[in-house]
């Protein structure tokens, strides 16, 4: 099942909602089907997050020079979400967070925040601890290196040094086009 297909499934609760009117709050009649909720950047921009053993269900996938293979992203994200639901550890929608981190140009790791753990999934659960600061960007996916540099410069001015970057891509490409924004949140561990 493709990632975009399961996002709109009315039979299952998903982090992305179901068919809705994109500009309902603006009073327009746009009946475009979206799968991702509208993202509000204010609660995420330039915020500090203290995590102590925060559990994430993880999966890795190959990439080519940090470029993911679309069919593999769909498969990986679908597997993560369905596994979290199957074992009863899926976060509530208000707490949904899916981070991406590329430890090399050939490998990407995805982290789905979960509400707990399950003994059958211990090898797939990673607990993140530390201080993370988040900074929101609006731009194309290929701007990630530029976003990382901007975050690093912003942190240097504050006397901090980032150790790692994790990205939260808040919408799929289709919904980003519909909403007119492609928000990305850089979570930098300091």
Note the overall shape.
globular
Task: Report the sheet-strand fraction.
Answer: 25-35%
Number of domains: 1
Strand order of the largest sheet: 1-3-2-5-6-4
Give your account of this protein's structure.
With 190 residues, the chain is α+β, with helices and mostly antiparallel strands. It has a single domain, classed as Regulatory factor, effector binding domain (Multidrug-efflux Transporter 1 Regulator Bmrr, Chain A, Alpha-Beta Barrel). It has 4 helices and 6 strands; from the N terminus they run αβαβββαβαβ. The chain has a 6-stranded antiparallel barrel. A hairpin with a 2-residue loop joins strand 2 and strand 3 (107-113). The N and C termini lie far apart (37 Å). Residues 1-24 and 27-31 have low confidence and may be disordered.
Compose a concise summary of this entry.
By secondary structure, the chain is α+β, with helices and mostly antiparallel strands.
Which key terms come to mind for this protein?
190 residues, alpha+beta, Multidrug-efflux Transporter 1 Regulator Bmrr, Chain A, six-stranded antiparallel barrel, 4 helices, 23% helix, globular, disordered N terminus
Helix and strand arrangement:
Elements: H1 3-7, E1 47-62, H2 70-86, E2 98-104, E3 107-113, E4 125-138, H3 144-157, E5 164-169, H4 173-179, E6 183-189
Antiparallel strand pairs: 1-3, 1-4, 2-3, 2-5, 4-6, 5-6
């Amino acid at each position: 099942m493709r990632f975009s297909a399961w996002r709109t499934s009315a039979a299952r609760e998903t982090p992305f909602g179901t068919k809705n009117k994109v500009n309902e709050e603006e009073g327009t009649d746009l009946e475009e089907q979206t799968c991702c909720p509208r993202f509000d950047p204010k609660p995420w921009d330039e915020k500090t997050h203290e995590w102590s053993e925060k559990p994430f269900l993880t999966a890795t996938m190959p990439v080519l020079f940090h470029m993911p293979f679309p069919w593999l992203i769909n498969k990986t994200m679908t597997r993560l979400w369905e596994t979290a639901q199957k074992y009863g550890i899926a976060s509530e929608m208000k707490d949904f967070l899916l981070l991406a981190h590329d430890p090399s140009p050939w490998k990407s790791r995805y982290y789905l925040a979960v509400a707990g753990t399950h003994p059958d999934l211990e090898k797939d659960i990673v607990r993140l601890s530390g201080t993370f600061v988040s900074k929101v960007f609006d731009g194309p996916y290929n701007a990630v290196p530029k976003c990382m540099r901007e975050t690093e410069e912003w942190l240097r001015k504050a006397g901090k040094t980032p150790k790692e970057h994790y990205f939260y891509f808040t919408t799929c490409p289709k919904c980003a086009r519909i909403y007119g924004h492609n928000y990305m949140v850089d979570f930098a561990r300091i």
